[in-house]
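Researcher: Sequence of Methylglyoxal synthase follows. Predict its structure.
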Amino acid sequence: MELALVAHDSKKAALIEWASRNRDRLDGHTIFATATTGGLLETELGLTVSKTLSGPMGGDQQIGAKIAEGVIDAVIFFWDPMETQPHDTDVKALLRIAVAWDVPMACSESTAQMVIESSRLVDKDYTRTTPAHPRTRTA
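Model: Prediction complete. Tokens:
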């Protein structure tokens, strides 16, 4: 499974701690992350990470594009709902694209834990449905 791990600055430590506790579960998956988060995952946990740009520089949009391309299967996004982000529109676009493309997304630590620990699908090939919206069809 291809997982995106993303965190706002105020949530990066919590994501690294969560990833550390779940290191063995994450190790068998392809990990994508925005630049700063990905660098921390590599440095702190020794994970191999495919990094995009930093979130404010377009990394959230790159993750969204990978969702639309069918590359990313699930998103773990520790976002801070109490803090305005300079790239808030990009964050909302990432959340929107994940839902539009029916990609499982955990936006809190407890949900991330349930997804990674409880789901029988995490370690299996899973074919998600693609959207059937008229706007997504090509002529």
